[in-house]
Structure of Cytochrome b5 heme-binding domain-containing protein:
Amino acid sequence: MDPVGELTMASGGGAYVKHTVVAAFAILLFYLVAFRRQQILQYITPGQAGTTQDGERLFSEQELLAYDGKASELLYLVIMGQVYDVTKGVKHYGPGESYHMFIAHDATRSFVTGEFEQYSAELSDVSGLKDTELQQLLTWLEFYEKTYRYVGKLIGRYYDARGEETTYRRHVLERAASAKDAETDGRKYPSCNVEWKVEMGTRVWCTTRSGTGHERGWAGRPRKVTDVDDDARSVQFCACVPDEEADADPLYVPFPGCDETADSCIIPDQH
C-alpha cells in the first residue's frame, strides 16, 4: 500500500471522527441549555412549577425564601397560607423596614399579636388566639386581597401539597365565623384594633374601620368593656364607642391611665 495514500485515508478518517464528536457535543449542549432554560422558566413563572389543578402557584418554604427582597427585588408576604406580592409596598416591607419580618414566610399570628421583632416557625400557628382575633385576621386577608397581587399558596399549615385547604385552616375559618355571629347578635359597639409589643404591652385604638373592617363615618374612643364574665370576655374586651355616647353607658369605661378623649391607649402587661 502506498504510504502516502494510507496517511491520507487516516487523516480523513480522523477528521470524520472529530466532526462527529463535535456535532454530538453540540447536540448535547443544545439539550442541556434547553433543559436549564425550562428549569429557570419554571422557577420564575407563576403556574409552571408546582401548581394546583386550577393553575395556582404552590410554594415550598424554601422556594419562598427567593422572594425576600434580598435574593431578588420581589417581596412576597404570606397570611393564612396565601401569598401576595407586596413589592410595591417596599417602604413598609423592604429589608430593614418595620414589617420586613412578614416577608418570605408565614407569620400570620403577628398580624394580631404584633410580634414583629424576630421570625419563628410558631408564628404561623393561630390556634392560641381568641375567636375575635381570628376574625381580625380575615379583615387583614381581605385587605391584602384588595391591595396586592395574589400569587399563590404556601404548602404547610394552611394548604397541603395539592393546594387544598387543610383541616386546620377550615377550623380557623369556622372559629372566625362564630365570632362574627356573636358580634352580629350581641355587640353594641365594634371592637378596637389591638396590637402587642414586648416593650410596651398592649395597645388598643379606634379608626373608622375598627371592628368589622368596613368603613363607617366615625372612629370612636376605646373603652374597656366591664359587663363580661369569663366566657364573654373572649368575645370583646375593648369597644370603640362614638364620641356622643362615650360617657353615657357605665358598662363602657376609659382604660386606667388613658385620657378619656384619646383614640389610642396603652395597656401595660400585668405581672
